[in-house]
Amino acid sequence: MIKACLHCGLDTERTEEKFCCAGCCAAYKIINKFGFKNYYNLRQIDSKERKMKPQEDERIDIDEFITENENGSYCISLMVQGIHCAACVWLIESILKKQKNVIKARVNLSRKTLFLEWNKSKDAGNELISIISDIGYKILPFDEKIIQEEEKKYGDNILKSLAVAGFGAGNVMLFSIVLWISGPENMGDSTRNLLHFFSALLALPAIIYSSRPFFSSAFKAIKAGYPNMDLAICMAISLSCLVSLLETLRGQTDVYFDSAMMLVFFLLIGRYLDLKARKKAFSVASQFAMLCASFGRVESDDGQVKIIPIKDLEVDMVLVVAVGEKIAADGIIIDGNSEVDASLINGESLPKLVKCQDQVFSGMINLESPLKVKVTKRSKDSLLAQIVTLSEEVEGEKNHYVRMADRFSRFYTPVVHVLAFATFISWCFYFGIGWEAALVNATAVLIITCPCALALAVPIVQTIAISNFIKKGILVKSGQSLERLREVGVVVFDKTGSLTIGKPELLDIILLKDESGEKNIILTGGQRSYYLRLASSLAVKSKHPISIAISKEYQKNYESLESLSVQESRGFGMESEYQDAQIRLGRKDFCEIDREVDLSSYEHGNFISTFMKVGDQEVVFLLSDKLKQDAQNVVSCLKDLGKKVILLSGDSEKAVRDVANKVNISEFYFEQTPLSKVEFLQSLESKVKNNQSILMVGDGLNDAPSLAAADISISFSQGSDISQNIADIVIQGERLEPIISLINSSRKAIWLMKQNLIIALIYNLIAVPFAVIGFVSPLIAALAMSSSSLLVLLNSLRMNQGSHK
Amino acid sequence: MSVLIFLIPVTIILGLIGLVAFLWSLKSKQYEDLQGAANRILFEEEIPEEENLQNKGEE
Q: Is residue A429 predicted with pLDDT exceeding 70?
C-alpha cells in the first residue's frame, strides 16, 4: 500500500509509518511542538509545486548576506522555495516569532521572500534559518539589491505620480465644477479669479510632479530623433498650463488647469495598467531558479563547504554537487560516478553517464550520486556563458519593433501640431484677434486632440488580455508580443521538449523468448501488466529517469505493488527476489542477456531500451520520447490558419524525420547547432513577406539564441531558465494548444485596439473643428475628453467576452 | 462668499492628509505584497491553548 506522507504529501513505501522519511517526521514534530498543527488543515498544496520534503546536507553559509543594523540587531533577506499558500506564511512567521531573539519576521507571499531581523549574536541567525529548512522549505540568501531593479523603482514612481495627480485632479475639479455651473451673473470677477488662483496653486505643482514620466520619455524621443506619443502629451500639458497661468494673471475666463490635470491623471492610469500587466507576467519561480543557479558549493582544503556566488568561482576550486543540483561551473569530475541530465546543453532527453575525469558543463543537473567537480573555466568563459552571450548579441541586433500606438502617433503628432500652429497663425494674423486669444484657441486644439483615449486604449486591452492568459497558465511578458503574434507567418518548432515531451515514456514491452520458442513478442493485456507491475515494484525505489518512466506508466493503470527489498547498483540496474526467482532490471550486461533485440517491425529506431530478467525469462522495455498529445492537432491547426510550419532540431536525421512525419511537417532540418539555428532564422527573415513575423517555439538552452533571434518566441515552464527569460511568452504545462489560443486571442486584442484608435479618431474629427473655430470652452474640453476615454474603456472590456466559455 | 477663504484651505488640507497617508503607506512597503496582505487577516495571531490540547487529544 502506498500512502501519502503526513508532512510532505509524497508517496511513502513504508507502510507502517505515516512519514516517507526521518526528515519529514522531524518536521512534523517541530510543527506540533510549537502548536501549529492547524497548518496541515489550512494549507492548500498545489501538486505542481515543490514538495515540502526536508533536504539533507542543507547547511547554507549565510554570513556574507547578514547586515548589521545601527542598533545592534542583524537582518537578512531570504528567498524561500516551497511557500505555496497563506498557511505557509502564517507557519513560518509564527514559528520564528516564538523563538527568542527574533525581532521581526515577515514573509512576502507574492515574492516568496522572508525578511528576518534578530538581536544577540550573528550566529543565532543560522539556528533560526535551520528551523525553517528543517520544516521543509528550501532557503537561499539573496542581496536585496538584485531584486530591487529599475522596474520596481519605475513602478513606485508611477504610483506616486498617480497619487499626486489624483489628489490634484480631485481638488481642481471641485473648483472647476463651481466655475462651470455659475455663470458671470452669479459669480463676481474677484471670486472667479480667486478660484482660478487656487486652481493654479494646486494644479501647477501637482502637474510638474506627476508628469515627469511623460517628460523623461518625450525627452528620450527627441534625443532619438523621432516623435512619440509622449511628446504630443507634453506639448499639450505644458502649453495649456502656460496659457492658463497667463489667463489667470490677466483675470480672463478660459482656464484649462482642470483639463491638463485630468489628462495627466488619465494617462497615468494607462501607464499603471501597462506596468501591472508586465509585472504580473514576471514569475517568481523563474526568479528563484535564476538565483539558485547563481551559487556554487565549494569545498575548501579543510573539508568545509561554503556557498559562493558563481561569479566568484575560480579555476581549480572543488565544487560539491549534490543529487538534483545544477553543476555551477564547467569542470572535470574528480570524485564520484553519476548520471547527468544534459538536456539544457544539447537538448538530448536521455541522461548521460559520467565518471571520474569526464568533462561536465555548467547547467547540467546531477541525477544519481554526489559528485566532486574541479572547476576548469571561470563562469564567464563557460559554455553556458557563451550561449548566453550569443543570445544577447542576437537580441541586440534585432530591429526594435515599433509598437502600434507609436506608429499611429508618428503621423498623428505632426498633424496635430501643425493644426494647432495653423489655428494660432490664422486667428492671430488673418482674423486679427490678438495673440493671447489666438493662443487660447490653439491650446484648445491641442487639449482636444491630446491622445488621452489613445493612451488608455492600448494598455487596457493589453492588461485584460494578459490577465486572461495568466488564468490559463500562459505568461505573456509584454503587450507588444500580442501585436507581433497577430502577424506570425512562419512557426518554427524545436523538437525535444517542444513537440515532444522531452522525457522518455514507456512504449512497448517485448518478451525476448517464450516457452514455445517464439521470439520478440510485443506483450499486451495481462502479460504486459504482469511484467510492468513487476518492473515497477523495483523501479519505484529508484530516482533514475527510466525507472520513473516505468513506475509512472504503472501508476496510471494499476493499484498495488509488490513490496520487495531492492539493491541498486548505480548506473547499472537494480536487483531483487520475487517468489524464489531473481529479478534484475537495468542495462543489458547487468541482466546478463546475450540475445539480440529485433526491432525491424518498427519504422523508426529512436528508442531507449532497458532490460529485465525474471528467472530465465528475458524482457525488454522500449522507451521513447513521445510526442505531446496535441502536437498533431496543433500543427494541422496552424496550417489551417495559413502559417508555414518548420521543424528545426539539433537531433539526428532519423529522429527528426520520424517526428516530422508523425506531425506532418514537410520542411525539417536536423543536426543544427545553436549558431546555425540563428543563421537559419536570419535567412528565413529575409525570405518571408515583410509584414510577417517568425514565431520560434523552443525550450532548451540550445534554443535560447534562436528564441532571441525570432520576432517572437514561446518557451515552456519546464524549459531552461535562460530560454524562459528570453522568450516573450512562457506556457505552463505540456500542452501546445495554448499557441493556437494565443494567436486567436491576439487577433481579437489587436482588432479591439484598432477599434479604439478609430473611436479616438472619429471623436477628434468631430471635436477639432469646434476647437479650431474657438468654440471649445474648458467645460466642453473636459466633457469630451472624459466621454471618449469612457467609450474606449467600455469597448476594451469586450476583450473579456468569450474568454469565459 | 468670504466663507470660501476658510473652506478652500480646509479642503486642500484634508486632501493633503490623504495624499501624505498614501505616500507613507507606499514608502513603508505596504504595497509590496498585496497577495499576502489579503490572506493574512484570515489567520489568528496566537492559537488558543485549549485548541492545542484538543489537537493533541485527537492524536
A: yes
Alpha-carbon dihedral angle through residues A480, A481, A483, A486, given to the nearest 10 degrees: 180
Rounded Cα gap, residues A527 and A507, in angstroms: 15
CB neighbourhood size of A388 (10 A)? 20
The pLDDT mean for chain A works out to 78
Chain A: residues touching B (Cβ < 8 Å): 35-38, 42, 85-87, 89-90, 107-111, 156, 159-160, 163-164, 167, 170-171, 174, 188, 191, 194, 198, 202
Per the DSSP assignment, residues forming a β-bridge with A339 are A353
Asked if B25 reaches chain A (Cβ–Cβ under 8 Å), the answer is: no
Residue A494 is among the residues annotated as catalytic for this protein: yes
Least Cα distance to A72 among A15, A121, A25 occurs for A121
Name the H helices within A99-210.
Answer: 124-135, 144-147, 150-181, 189-210
Mean pLDDT of A362-385: 78
Report chain A's C-alpha Rg in angstroms: 33
Q: Dihedral of the CA atoms B29, B32, B36, B41 (nearest 10)?
A: 30
DSSP A323: T
Is the ipTM reported for this complex over the cut 0.85? no
Angle at A291 between CA A720 and CA A27, to 5 degrees: 100
Q: Are A485 and A637 in contact (CB under 8 A)?
A: no
pLDDT of res. A591: 80
Average pLDDT (A385-400) is 64
Alpha helices in A450-593 (DSSP H): 452-471, 479-486, 525-539, 545-557
Q: Are A650 and A671 in contact (CB under 8 A)?
A: yes
Chain A residue with minimum CA distance to B1: A191
pLDDT tens digit sequence for A670-701: 888 778 888 888 888 888 777 788 899 988 77
Contact B26 A202 (CB under 8 A): no
Q: How many CB atoms lie within 10 A of CB A103?
A: 14
| Residue A348: how many other CB atoms lie within 10 Å | 19
What single-letter amino acid sits at A505?
E
pTM assigned to the model: 0.68
d(CA A611, CA A620): 5
Q: What are phi and psi of A509, to 5 degrees?
A: -115, 130
| Angstrom distance (rounded) from CA A316 to CA A313 | 9
Q: Which three cell numbers stand for residue A246?
A: 497667463
- Contact yes or no for B33 and A160 at CB 8 A: no
Residues A258, A341, A494, A508: which is the catalytic one? A494
Residue A521 DSSP code:
E
For residue B41, list chain A residues with Cβ-Cβ distance below 8 A. none
What is residue B21's predicted lDDT score, i.e. its pLDDT?
Answer: 93
- Identify the DSSP state of A498: I
Exposed e or buried b per residue across A779-798, where buried means at least 16 C-beta atoms within 10 angstroms of its C-beta? ebbbebbeebbebbbebbee
Closest residue to B47, CB basis, from A38, A110, A202: A38
State the DSSP H helix or E strand holding residue A26, giving kind and residue range, or none if neither. Answer: helix A22-33
Whether pLDDT at A739 is above 70: yes
Q: Which residue has the cell 543594523?
A: A69
To the nearest whole Å, the CA of A244 is away from the closest chain B CA by 20
Q: What is the pLDDT of residues B29-55, one digit of tens each?
A: 787 777 777 777 776 655 544 444 444
A189-247 confidence digits (pLDDT tens): 888 888 888 889 999 999 999 999 889 888 888 887 776 777 878 888 888 888 889 88
- What are the pLDDT digits (tens) for A596-618? 776 666 655 567 778 888 877 88
Looking at residue A572, what DSSP letter applies? T
Separation of CA A349 from chain center: 23
CB contact under 8 A, A108 and B32: yes
Picking from A240, A234, A232, the residue whose alpha carbon sits closest to that of residue A258 is A240
The answer to whether the CB of A734 falls within 8 A of the CB of A501 is: yes
pLDDT of residue A370: 81
